[in-house]
Amino acid sequence: MAARRDLTLAEKVELIRKNEQNVPYRKLTGEYKISIGSVSNIVKPKVEYIENYEQNENSNKKRNLRDEFSQQLDQKVYEWFVQQR
């Protein structure tokens, strides 16, 4: 099984721009070392990635954080885990 490879926001926008120049998915998979499904999952919401990039979000960011409730829940579960340990 191949190791997981997360692309930064800047890399995703670069991939989207290359795709818009009609570079095939197969070539992009080799260049970025990700699967065809990953390329597809990046190209589908391309508007969102481009907007985030143009709004000067951190271009090294790899993932969006979940909503505040989920973050608080994760923190509470972690605190419980540490206490039980």
UniProtKB/TrEMBL annotation:
Gene3D superfamilies: Homeodomain-like
Name of protein: HTH psq-type domain-containing protein
